[in-house]
UniProtKB/TrEMBL annotation:
Originating species: Phytopseudomonas argentinensis
Record: residues binding pyridoxal 5'-phosphate: G99, A100, F131, D218, E219, I220, Q221, T276
Localization, UniProt: Cytoplasm
Protein name: Acetylornithine aminotransferase
Family from the record: Belongs to the class-III pyridoxal-phosphate-dependent aminotransferase family. ArgD subfamily.
Cofactor: how and how many bound: Binds 1 pyridoxal phosphate per subunit.
Gene name of the record: argD
EC number: 2.6.1.11
GO MF annotation terms: identical protein binding; N2-acetyl-L-ornithine:2-oxoglutarate 5-aminotransferase activity; pyridoxal phosphate binding
Pathway: Amino-acid biosynthesis; L-arginine biosynthesis; N(2)-acetyl-L-ornithine from L-glutamate: step 4/4
Superkingdom of origin: Bacteria
Family annotation (InterPro entries): AcOrn/SuccOrn_fam, Aminotrans_3, Aminotrans_3_PPA_site, Class-III_PLP-dep_AT, PyrdxlP-dep_Trfase, PyrdxlP-dep_Trfase_major, PyrdxlP-dep_Trfase_small
Length: 396
């Protein structure tokens, strides 16, 4: 329901639809119209909407205890930390409430690491088209001038190189003695679904080892099974020093995490970082339940199978389409790049196809379906997107 005189700040361009309930990959508007969700609240509701086990655990924990603060031991936080570290090969976790906060923790670790190495002005290497959040530090790390415009002065201490380009990285390494860490997404999500090659990530790992840099991987969108592995970087067989998570970790309940191993895991001492809400019993117990369900139902492997079906389906259906420049993806992160600006397709998809999609970088349709989709629903997404792009039925 669009509000003529809204009391909300105009930070978002919202579609004129509001949903009243959801189940699995389906959503219903207040008036009962059914929609198919191919974006999962931007890679958040990977277990689908209204998952009965998540609902039950939220209800139970809400009746027991919501919050006590980090002044005390929190058993569910210990458990979730242990589980995530085991899956990711990490040693310690810091919990917060969002992706940007997880990256803030990582950036602070990088600065501490630099100062420990006697680098007075430590610099962090970030990528063109990268996305790391909207706080001032993470916005400064983000490689999108349009999102940064108006918020200058940005935070200093970042150097930027092209993504997936090892030569550019080596040149920057030779020129800049103050680099102490690299922050990178294994698949650029907001940047248009670009997948870093496994060779690049392995060479990056080796470069970080020789230079003493922290390798910090932003798995906020690509992690939690979405790419077909628990974490996107695992396709390259590397282990980072720092990993950031959020989005699907709580299936809609806000939670973020910064994981670390080795020296990076020991950098924070009491009082150096904190969050009032971070790691509360409710969010952490839900995180544990999300991991239980994903492991039991083998959802990372399922995402690989469904992702393959989605990608080959799109490639088959859109083959030779005059407007389609590229179809990219890994697991259930898929992008269809068009030869033109296509933002209006988001509204058209809702209206004509009852399908939720997003457009990133102005020209790329992004699909992030829930990991619990059926094959039929994946084929349905392909059919609806194809119709959307069919001449005669849309302005393409
Ligand atoms: C969404 C996202 C973030 C920011 O997460 P918020 O929870 O919105 O702060 C950071 N990095 C990546 C890769 C993301 O996709």
């Amino acid at each position: 329901m669009p509000h003529v005189k809204s009391h909300l700040m105009r930070a978002y361009a919202r579609q004129p639809v509001s949903f009243a309930r959801g189940s699995g990959a389906c959503l219903w508007s207040a008036s009962g119209v059914e929609y198919l969700d191919a974006i999962s609240g931007v890679a958040v509701t990977s277990l689908g909407h209204g998952h009965p086990e998540i609902t039950a655990v939220i209800a139970e924990q809400a009746g027991l205890l919501l919050h006590t603060s980090n002044l005390f031991q929190i058993d569910w936080q210990e458990r979730l930390g242990e589980r995530l570290c085991a899956l990711a090969g990490m040693q310690r976790a810091f919990f917060c409430n969002s992706g940007a906060e997880a990256n803030e923790a990582a950036l602070k670790l990088a600065r501490l690491h630099g100062h420990r190495k006697q680098v007075a002005q430590p610099q962090i290497l970030v990528m063109e088209n990268g996305f790391h959040g909207r706080t001032l530090a993470t916005l400064s790390a983000t490689g999108n001038p349009a999102k940064q415009q108006g918020f200058e002065p940005l935070m200093p201490g970042f150097l930027r190189v092209p993504y997936d380009d090892i030569g550019a990285l080596r040149r920057m390494a030779d020129e800049s003695p103050n680099i102490v860490a690299v922050l990178i997404e294994p698949v650029q999500g907001e940047g248009g679904i670009r997948v870093a090659s496994a060779d690049y990530l392995r060479e990056l790992r080796a470069l970080c080892d020789t230079r003493g840099w922290l390798l910090m991987i932003d798995e906020i969108q690509a992690g939690m099974g979405r790419t077909g592995a628990w974490f996107g970087h695992q396709h390259a067989g590397i282990t980072p020093d720092v990993i950031t998570l959020a989005k699907a970790l709580g299936n809609g309940l806000p939670i973020g995490a910064c994981l670390a191993r080795g020296e990076a895991a020991e950098l924070f001492s009491p009082g150096q970082h904190g969050s009032t809400f971070g790691g509360n019993p409710l969010a952490c117990r839900v995180g544990c339940t999300v991991l239980d369900i994903m492991a039991r139902d083998a959802l990372p492997a399922r995402a690989a199978v469904l992702g393959e079906r989605l990608l080959t389906g799109l490639q088959g259906a859109l083959k030779g389409h005059p407007q389609v420049v590229a179809i990219r993806g890994q697991g259930l992160m898929a992008g269809i790049e068009l030869a033109r600006s296509c933002k209006e397709l988001v509204g058209l998809a809702l209206e004509r196809e009852h399908l939720l999609i997003t457009v990133t970088r102005d020209t790329t349709i992004r699909l992030l379906p829930p990991l619990i989709c059926s094959e039929v629903q994946i084929d349905d997404i392909v059919a609806r997107v194809t119709r959307l792009l069919s001449p005669g039925e849309s302005p393409v």
